[in-house]
Every structure is written in structure tokens, then in C-alpha cells.
Amino acid sequence: MLVGKVSWSSRQTCWKRSYSPKQCEVFWLFWLNVLSLTGREPSLRYMFSKIGREIILLHGLLNKMETEVEEQEKLKNSLKVIFFFLFVKY
Fold it and tell me: Which of 29, 51, 55, 89 would you call most buried, defined as having the most Cβ atoms within 10 angstroms of its Cβ?
């Protein structure tokens, strides 16, 4: 059974995405109940915190990979410039 109230701003956001008012109401009530269950159920609370930690780690790894790719591109461009000056210019 779904229990709770949905704020007006969340309804407006949902309606902007072209869902019917009833679909929005059910969607928000469902997530309100999931969140309320999380507080009472220790295993769910643990699971959500674990997922959150994993997401933070993934973001860190993705940022590190992005930085490495940018460094590789800079090195590649530097090699092109060096090649040009050594072999093409003379």
C-alpha cells in the first residue's frame, strides 16, 4: 500500500516530462515508500550505502581515466610536432 504525499514541485517536474498526473503520483509515492522502508530495514540501508560508495569509486576511476586519455592526446600531439620539425621541415 502506498502512503504519503507528493510535493507540488515534484509533480510539476514529472508533468513536464509528459507523464499523466496519475503516473506521476504513483511514481513519487512508490519512491517515498522505498525511502521510508530503507530507514526501517537495515539490509536495504546497508545496500544503498554500499551502492553509493561504489558509485563514488567509479566516478573517481572515470575521472582518472579521462585525465590519462587527455595526457596521452597531449603526448601524441607533441610527437606530431616533433616529427614535423625533424623530418618535414628540413
Answer: 29
DSSP designation for 20 = -
Q: In the structure grid, which three cell numbers stand for residue 26, read together?
A: 504513483
Cell representation of residue 18: 509528459
87: pLDDT strictly greater than 60? yes
Which residues does 2 contact at the CB level (< 8 Å), separation at least 6?
26, 29, 30, 32, 33
Q: Write the single-letter amino acid at 52.
A: G
Buried b (16+ CB within 10 A) or exposed e, 31-51: ebeeeeebeeeeeeeeeeeee
Q: What is the mean pLDDT of residues 1-28?
A: 55
DSSP state of 5: -
